[in-house]
């Protein structure tokens, strides 16, 4: 049987111990692995590894020994409780072994959990699970996690007292990060809040979120917008060492100053304008953007955007010979000086 994404979320959280097995497939190996970890933990419990109730078989091993899977499914365990045989990274070469195990499965045998990459609709393995009355097939796609899935991850990590604005910030983080990075961030956050019963804050999330080139770019843009010209050079050198080029920095600066202009030019004022930003901003970043927008004002921000547009055109000009980063650094210093002017 084929499970829809909504049905799959419920099944991963509470799998049926009496079923024959489950196929999880998808192009993103990390997303597939995380779902497999979830379903095995829910199916077998936390002591499965120690009690030898889970058997792991690489999919490639089944090509040379097709009986390996069926033997593992039929084997009798030393400890009571549900058992599973996990076939990792299965390809069509493993289809004969998997189909034979599905056909010969009987109540009391170990469940067959198979993971695979992207499988075509014509795949023998996929068709076998989708057509089996007591087995399931689930396709994992690169969709961002749902709100319910984020809440489940937080609950499993023991993170409580999450206000609405912080939950929105975490949901945005789940969209921007890969599944593995997000899982590591939540694990880090749970350790950060260990023995701390106070409400989770946006500052807590920011403290545990991974620092990246994008974060370093934000540092430069904040320094420029706040008129701290003397700090621009070292930060740009650091960005350059990380592989950021002049065009990327110019595009990032343009995006930042357009955000400030959207706030400052709102008829209701910057405080009202920042509430209309999409995606919304929270915590210290919201306060910082609001201060910058109020400090610059719409008129000076128009001038800043003109400077950035001219710089971008120069960078893309066929006749440009000056180093790109030098041009951008000069524009950044000019903007920082403009920020300090009255």
Radius of gyration: 27 Å
Strand content: 5-15%
Terminal Cα span = 69 Å
Order of helices and strands: HEHEHHEHEHEHHHHHHHHHH
Q: Order of strands side by side in the largest beta sheet?
A: 2-3-4-1-5
Q: Share of helix among residues? A: 55-70%
Low-confidence stretches: none
User: What multimeric state do the chains show?
Assistant: single chain
Structural class by SSE content? alpha/beta
Number of strands: 5
Mean pLDDT: 87
Shape: elongated
The number of helical elements comes to: 16
Biggest sheet, open or closed, and with what strands and sense? 5 strands, parallel
What does this protein structure show overall?
By secondary structure, this protein is of the alpha/beta class. 57% of the residues lie in helices and 8% in strands. It has 16 helices and 5 strands. The protein has helices spanning 5-13, 29-44, 61-64, 67-74, 95-104, 124-131, 147-156, 164-176, 179-192, 202-208, 213-225, 232-241, 246-264, 270-273, 283-316, 324-340; strands at 21-25, 54-58, 84-90, 111-116, 135-139. Strands 2-3-4-1-5 form a 5-stranded parallel β-sheet, sandwiched between helices. Helix 5 links the parallel strand 3 (84-90) and strand 4. Helix 11 (213-225) packs antiparallel against helix 12, helix 13 (246-264) runs parallel beside helix 16 and helix 15 crosses helix 16. The longest helix has 34 residues, at 283-316.
């Amino acid at each position: 049987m084929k499970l829809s994404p909504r049905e799959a979320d419920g099944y991963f959280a509470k799998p049926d111990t009496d079923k024959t097995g489950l196929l999880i497939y998808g192009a993103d190996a990390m997303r597939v692995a995380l779902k497999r970890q979830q379903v095995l933990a829910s199916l077998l419990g936390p002591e499965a590894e120690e009690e030898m109730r889970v058997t792991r078989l690489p999919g490639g091993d089944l090509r040379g020994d097709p009986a390996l899977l069926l033997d593992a499914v039929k084997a009798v365990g030393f400890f009571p409780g549900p058992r599973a045989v996990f076939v990792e990274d299965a390809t069509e070469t493993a289809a004969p072994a998997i189909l034979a195990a599905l056909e010969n499965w009987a109540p009391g045998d170990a469940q067959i959990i198979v993971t695979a990459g992207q499988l075509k609709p014509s795949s023998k393995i996929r068709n076998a699970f989708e057509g089996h009355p007591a087995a399931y097939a689930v396709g994992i796609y690169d969709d961002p996690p749902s709100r319910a899935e984020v809440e489940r991850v937080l609950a499993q990590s023991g993170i409580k007292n999450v206000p609405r604005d912080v939950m929105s910030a975490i949901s945005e983080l789940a969209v921007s990060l890969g599944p593995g990075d997000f899982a590591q961030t939540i694990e880090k956050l749970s350790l950060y809040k260990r023995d701390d019963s106070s409400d989770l804050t946006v500052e807590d999330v920011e403290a545990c979120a991974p620092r990246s080139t994008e974060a370093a770019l934000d540092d430069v843009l904040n320094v420029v917008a706040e008129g701290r010209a003397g700090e621009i050079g070292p930060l740009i050198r650091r960005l350059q060492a990380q592989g950021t080029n002049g065009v990327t920095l110019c595009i990032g600066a343009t995006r930042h100053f357009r955000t400030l202009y959207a706030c400052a030019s709102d008829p209701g004022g910057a405080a009202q304008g920042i509430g209309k930003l999409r995606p919304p901003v929270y915590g210290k970043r919201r306060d910082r953007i609001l201060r910058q927008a109020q400090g610059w004002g719409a008129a000076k921000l128009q001038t800043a955007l003109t400077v950035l547009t001219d710089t971008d055109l120069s960078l893309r000009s066929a006749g440009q010979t000056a180093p790109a980063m030098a041009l951008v650094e000069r524009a950044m210093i000019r903007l920082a000086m403009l920020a300090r002017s009255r």
